[in-house]
Amino acid sequence: MAKKGAREIIRLKSTESDQCYWTIKNKRNTTERLELKKFDKSLRRHVTFKEAK
User: On the CB side of 27, how many CA atoms lie within 13 Å of its CA?
Assistant: First the structure.
């Protein structure tokens, strides 16, 4: 059985294409939206990924 806690599954969407990543974030420690630089497979370069609903 899974624990109830502050962790939540979120989706990171590319700012330049339709590529998405799924990750886990701790809502207590990071209350603002995540913004990471990751590799976009369709563009074949690193771009900014922002947290999406």
Answer: 7
Contact predicate 36/48, CB 8 Å: yes
Which residues on neighbouring strands pair with residue 47, listed in sequence order? 38
Full-model pTM: 0.83
Q: What is the pLDDT along the chain (53 residues), one digit of tens a residue?
A: 667 789 999 999 999 999 999 999 999 999 999 999 999 999 999 999 999 98
What CA–CA distance (Å, rounded) separates 17 from 22?
15
DSSP, residue by residue, the chain? -PPPSSEEEEEEEESSSS-EEEEEEETTT--SPPEEEEEETTTTEEEEEEEE-
